[in-house]
Batch of 2 targets.
Target 1
Amino acid sequence: MIGHKLHKPENKIVAFSPETLEKIHELISHYPDGQQKSALLPVLHIAQEELGGFLSADLMDYIASLLNIQSIEVYEVATFYSMFNIDPVGKFVIDVCRTGPCAICGGEQILDYLKKKLNINEGETTPDGLFTINAVECLGACGAAPVMQVNTEFHEFLTSEKIDILLDNLREMANEKKVSQSRWVEKFF
Amino acid sequence: MGRKILLEKAGIPGIREFSIYRHHGGYGSAEKALIKMSPAEILQEVTRSGLRGRGGAGFPTGLKWSFLDRKCTNPRFLICNADESEPGTFKDRYLMEFLPHLVLEGLIISSFALGANTCYIYVRGEFKTLIGILQKAINEAYQQNFLGKNILGTGYSLDIFVHPGAGAYICGEETALLESLEGKRGNPRIKPPFPAYKGLYGCPTMVNNVETLAAIGPIIEMGGEAYASIGKGKSTGTKLISACGNINKPGVYEIDLGLPVEDFIYSKEFCGGIKDGKRLKAVVPGGSSVPILPAELILRTAGGQQRLMTYESLADGGFDSGSMLGSGGFIVYNEDACIVRNTWNFTRFYQHESCGQCSPCREGTGWMEKVLNRLEHGLGKMSDIDLLASIAGKIEGTTICPLGDAAAWPVSSAIRHFRQEFEFHAEHPEIVRKINHGALVKNQESNIQYR
Amino acid sequence: MVKVTIDNIPIEVEEGTTILNAARKIGGKIVPPAMCYYSKLAGSGGKCRTCLVKVAKSSAKDPRPMPKLVASCSTPVQDGMEVLNITSPEVIETRKAIVEFLLINHPLDCPVCDQAGECDLQDLSFSHGMANTRTIESRREFPPTDIGPFIKLHMNRCILCYRCIYVANQITDKRVHGILFRGDSSEISTYIENVIDNDFSGNMIDVCPVGALTDKTFRFKSRVWFLKPMDAHRQCTKCSGRVTAWMFGDEIYRITGRKDQFGEMEEFICNECRFGKKEFSDWIIDGPRKIKRQSVISASYYENMIKPSVINPIGEIMEETE
C-alpha cells in the first residue's frame, strides 16, 4: 500500500510574524496583479522554515487564505515538490545525494554509513528529534561528489570522518540552542 | 586553447561585487546594447554568433528569439532557466555563484532585445545560497540604474526577480517551469501553443538557460562574427563542461567547441585523466539523459574519426554509435563501474522525477526501475534484457515532454553497448548478489522508495 | 474551412479543430480512442497518449511528416494535412504499448468492479491490448476511500486522466480533491479528511473512464448489463433533468447522464437527480436509450432475466470485507 493516510487538520492557529507577513506581501508584488498564486513556492519555503520545519494541514490552509486560493491547490503543490515536508522532521534534515555521479564516487556508502551511525533508515527521524535522513536525487554538485545537504547547506567531498565531525558539531549546536540558519525570507530582499 | 569568454573574470577576487565587476569592464556590453543598439540589431548579432541553447537541446538561440510573438500586445517575459538538475551538470550553479553580474548583464541585454520588462530567474530550490548571491547582485544593479525604471536614461525599464523551485527536475522543462512559476504543480503543458506565443500567464515568453543568457554579454562585446569564428562548424563559441565521476580533476571547464574528447579527458588543463591510474570504461557526455558511450566510441567515432566536443561530432553515428553534447554534464566511468547498477540508478532518478501526467512516462519509468532493480540485485532473467529494451523503445517519442526520452535513452544505450554486462547479471545471480553491493540486497525493500 | 484526410478519408472542418474531432466527424473505426480527452471539459486531453496518430504530411505548405506521433486530441489540423490512424502499423503498435502501460498497475478486478461492462479501459484493452502480461512486479495499491456520501474512490483503478479535476474546476464551485504527489505515486485525494458534496460532484462518476469513481448508491447492486437503460426526465431546478435511468422491471437502480456515441455526457446533471430520485414515480420515462458504443450493454438487454436478487448478498459481503 502506498496511499497516504488522510491528514486531519487540528485547527490550530498558525500565523506568520508581522515582519514576515510584510515581506510576503512584498514577495506577492513581484508578480502581476491577480497572479498572487505565483508566490506559493517561496511562501511555502518560508513557512516551512519559520513555522516548524514541515507543512501541516493547518499551515497550508493558512497559506491558501493568505494567497486567496483553494486549500487543495496548496496540498497539490506541497506534495509535488520534494523539498517540502508534509510530515514532521528532525531539527537537521540530512539530504544525501544518491544519483549516478555521487553514487560512483561513494555516495551510497556515505548514506549507509549515516544510517548505521544514526541507527535510522531513510525517511526516518532519530528518537531525540535531531536528525532526519533523506536519500535524494541529484543535488547539482556532482563535481564535489559525494555530497549532501543539511538544511540546504551543502557539504561536499564527504568521507566518514567528515560526517563524524559534522554530526558532533550539529549536536553541539543543538545543545547550545544555536540553530541559526540563513533564512529564506532574507534571501529575497 | 585556454581561451575564456564566460569565465574570463571568474578568477578576480571579489568579482561578485558590482564595483569590481564594473571596474573590470563589466556592464560594458549592457551599456553598448541599450544605448547604441536596437533590439533588432542585438537579435542580428545573436543570430550571427550561431549561439545554440546551452540547456541541452542545442537549438539556435537567434532563431528561438525570432519566434517570439511580437504582435501580441500582452507584456512579454524573459525567464532565465536556472533549474539545473540534470545529474552530472553543475555549470549554471558555478556561473551564478561566481559571476552573478555576468548573468544579470546577459539578462538585461536579452530582455531589452526581446522587449520584456519583467524577467524571472527560476533557481532550483536546493541552491538556496545562490538565491542570496543573485538577489544581492540584483539589488546592486538596481542601485546603479542597470535595473529598474528608465535604465541609463534610455527609457527602458526592467525588473528582475528570483523565483525558487522546490525540488523537481521536471521544472527544467520550459513549460513545466512556467507552470511552477505560476504556483502550480510542475506538469509540462501540451504543445502547441508554444511559450513564445502563450507562455507565462498566457503571454509571449522566452525561456533560456543561464549559460545561454550569460553568453549574450560577451557576444555583444566581441560581435557575433568573432564569436562564431570560435568553434567548429555549427558548434560555435565556447561551452562550459562540468566534468565529474572517476577523474582526477572534476570541475567546470570552459572549452572551445571542437576540442577533441581525448584531450578533454586526459589533458592536465581539464579532467587530468582517470583517477588512480585506472582505465576509462565509459562516458556519459552530456548529462544523464544522453546515451552512454563505451571508451572506444567516445574517443573515436564508429567511422574511426577523432571524436570532438561539438554538437555534431558527439552525435555522429546517431543513437547506434553516437550520443549528444546535451547540457555538458560529462560523467566519466572507470573500469570498476557497474553499468547495470548505474543504469538502474539513473532510471530510479527518472522514476522519482517523472511528473506522472502522461501514462508512458509515469508507468514506464517505474516499470523499468523495477526490472533493473531485480537485475542488479541478482533476481533477473535473461528475458528481462529484451523486455527493458522494449519498454524503453515504447516510452521514447510517445510522451508529452522530453523526460520520457531522457529516461529511455540511457537504458537503451546501456543495453546496446554493454549487453554482456546485463547478461552476466542474469546468468550469475549468486555472484551479482555477493560481490555487487551485497549489503544493499538485504535491505532491498528500503531501497524501493516511491516518493 | 480546412481540408484534411484521415486514413485516406477526406473531410473539411473548421480551422482550429483538433485531429480527433475531425476524425469524430467522419466517425466509425477511424476515430482514435480517447481516455483523457473530454470535449465538454476545457483543457482536458493530451495525457493518456492513447489517441496518438501519425501525421504523414503536416500541411499543404509544409509537406514534411511530423517527427513524432502526435496526440490527436490536442493537435489542430492544418490545410492539406494527412493523418494516419488505423492504417499506420506504428500507431497500432504504440497504442498497444500504451494499453500495456495503463494496465501494469491496474488491479484487473473487473469481476467485482461496478464499471465493468461500460469501462473504457476494458474496451480499449479488448480492442488494442495484448493477450499476455509481461510484468511480474507487484502492483501499486491504495486503500479504497469514501470521498463524500455518494462517491467511492478506488485509486488502484485510476489512470490519472484528470477529468474529475476538470469537472470540479469547471462545473462545481469549489474543488476539494486534486492530484497529490507525483510520478507513479500520484494519486487523487482530498488530502485531508474531507467530503465532496457539491451539487454537481456526481458528474465525476460519469466522466471517469474507469471504475475509479463509482456511485455508492449503486455499489454492487447489479451488473450494468442486466439493466435496461431508459431515457427519462423530470422537472429539476438545478439541471436539465434529462437523464438515463437504469432499470430492472419498473425499479430504478441508478441514474446517470445521457452519454453520446463517444461515451461523453450530453449534459451534466445534478446530484439530486442522480442520487436522490430512485423511485419510478420520480421520473417520466421517454423510451429506451440506444447505447451506441461497442459495449456489452448494447449487445443484449437480457430482457427476460429474473430479478438479480442473488447478487445482492454477495454485494453486501464485499462491502463488509473491505
Note: Chain B has three domains: 18-228, 237-334, 339-447.
Target 2
Amino acid sequence: MTGTTKYAVFGRRNEGDDTLHLGTVSAHSDRLAKTYAYNTYDEEDWNYLAVVREEDLLEVEGGNVRREVPQ
Amino acid sequence: MSEWPAAAVDYVQAITDTKLVLGHRYAQWSLAGPSLEDDIGGSSAAQEEVGHVRQLFRKLESQGRDGDWLRGERDPEEFANASCLDAIDGDWTEYMATIAPVDRAAWYMLDAIDRDDMDGMITKMGEDEYFHLEYHDARLETLADENPEKLRSTLAETLPSALALIGPADVDDDADPLVDAGFTSQSVEGIRERFVDHYRELFADTDVSLEDVDWDAPDADAWDETRRRVGGGGVREEDLVQIRGERNAEFAIE
C-alpha cells in the first residue's frame, strides 16, 4: 500500500443522465479514493459516483481512416 | 418533547461535547494533512460535526440545558468531551489515531439511541458519519503500513479514552439505566463490544499490535459518569476562546 495511484472520478446527477468525468483524485488505496472522491466532488447530490484507476482506463485507439471523398 | 431521564441528558451531552471539540480539531488540522484530498476530507468533516452539534444543542435545550452554557460559556471541566481530544500536540498520525476512535465511539453511542423523535436526525447524521468512518479506516490502513509504531503507541492511549466515553464494561443489559428507560436499545457493554471488535478486525493483518491497549478501561470506580472519562483535565483556554468565538463576538447575528 505504498505510493499513490491516480483515479478518474465519474458522477451522474440523475438516473438516466450521462455519466460525467468530474476530475481526478490521488490515493493510496481504492477505499481511500472513494472517500476522497465523495468529499472532493460534493458540489452535487450525485445519484451515482465512481472512481476508476487511471491505469485501468482503456483508450480507444484507431488509425487514421482514409476518407474516400466522392469526386 | 417528552422529558428524558437525567442520565440520558448527560449521555447526549457527552456525545455533543465530543462532537463539538471533534469539529474543532478537524478544523484545526484541515490544512495540515499530507494531501489536498485529506484537507478537503477534514474540512468537510468539520462542517458536518458543527451541523450535528447544532441539532444536538436544540435537543439539549429542549431538556432544560442553557443555550449559552452549551455554546461554551462554561469551564473546561464542565465539558464532557472524550479526554483524548483535550489536546492533540503530535503529528498527523497521532491526530488521525485520536479522532478516528472518538468519532466512531460517538457515532455508536448516537446509533444506540432508540427514540422516534430523534430517528430522522440520527439517520441523517449516520449518512455523514459513514464517510467519516470509511475515511478514517482507509487512512488508518495506510498509516498501519507507513507508521505502525506511532500508530500503536497513540492507539494505546486513545482507544481506552474512547472506551471511557462509551462507558464501563459492567454496564450490561441488566445494569444499563438508559436501556432500562427505553432511551437506548443497546447497552454500554454492547456498544463496547461493537467498538472493540471493529478495531481488532481492522488491525488484525497489519503490523500494528494492539496488545498494549487496556480493553477493560475505564475502571468503573474511577469513572466520572457525567464527563464519561477517568481523571480531570479539559480543553485548553485558547480552544475555548475559539469555540466560543470570543474574538469575533461583535459580528454575531442576533
Note: Strands of chain A lie at 5-12, 20-27, 48-53.
